[in-house]
Amino acid sequence: MPVHISPERNPISGEYSVLLVKPISEKARDAAIYANKEFRLRLLNSLQGPFHDMEPDVVRMLLTDWGQALDPPNYGPRLTEAQARRLIAYSWGPMTYENTADAITELVKTYYLRKGIDNIALPQYYEETLICKVLQARPWRESAKVLGIRKSTLMLMLREVVKVLIQYYVKYIEIPEYMISVTKSQKRGK
Q1: How many CA atoms lie within 13 A of 53 on its CB side?
Q2: C-alpha distances in angstroms, 81 versus 33, 149, 181?
C-alpha cells in the first residue's frame, strides 16, 4: 500500500517515485493503514499543485481505499444552500461548471473521503474524469485530450456524474420543474 510519493517527477524516468509498504504484523498493519490514510489525504488535497499533471489512472490507483475510509462515517459534503442550488442548476439547468466548481469539488472530495464506507462506486472512467477535470483543475481541452474524448462529451459526462453524486450525497433536494425539459419526441407524443 502506498505511503509516500515524491512531489517531483524523476528526471530520468519521468515518473513519480512512490514508496509502498507491505505490513508483516498487526502492529505494522495499523501503522501502514495510518500512513496510507495520511498519504491519500495529502494526495487528494495536492492534485491542483505538485501532482496536477499526474495521469488520472495513476491517481485513481493511489487513492484506492484498502477498505479504510479517510474520514469518519458522519462526514457529508459541506455545502451551503446556495452551493446546493448551484449544483442543481449545473446538473439540470443552464449553470456552467466554472460557476459551480467550488461545490462540485466539495462533492467529489466527499466521494473520495467516504470511499470505503459508502455503497457508491463510480466506474473507473468516471473517476478518472473527476480526477482530471475537478481535482486536478485541468482546462477543458487538456482534460478531454488526456481522457481521449471530445470536449463536448466531457462536458456532458461531467454533468451526468455530478447528478449521480448529488442524488447520493445531497439529501432532500428539489429540482425546480422549469429545469426539467421535455424532448422534441416527447412533445410529439412518440
Answers
A1: 7
A2: 35, 33, 24
pTM of the model: 0.86
The C-alpha cell at 44 is: 487528494
Q: How many domains does the chain have?
A: 1
Instruction: Classify residue 187: in a domain, yes or no.
Output: no
* Dihedral Cα 161, 167, 168, 172, nearest 10 deg: 160
Domain ranges, residue 65: 2-180
Residue 189 within a domain:
no
Reported as type and span, the H/E element at residue 97 is: none
Q: Can you state the percent helix, strand and coil of the chain, rounding each to 5?
A: 50, 5, 40
For 35, residues 6+ apart whose C-beta sits below 8 A from its C-beta are: 3, 4, 21
E strands, the chain, where?
2-9, 16-20
Does residue 154 belong to any structural domain of this protein? yes
* Whole-number Å distance between alpha carbons of 2 and 18: 7
- Is residue 185, in this structure, part of any structural domain at all? no
Angle between helices 151-169 and 140-147 (to 10 degrees): 90
Encode the chain (190 residues) as per-residue pLDDT tens digits.
999 999 999 999 989 999 999 999 999 999 999 999 999 999 999 999 999 999 999 999 999 888 788 876 778 899 999 999 999 999 988 899 999 999 999 999 999 988 888 888 999 999 999 999 999 999 999 999 999 999 999 999 999 999 999 989 987 666 666 555 555 555 565 5
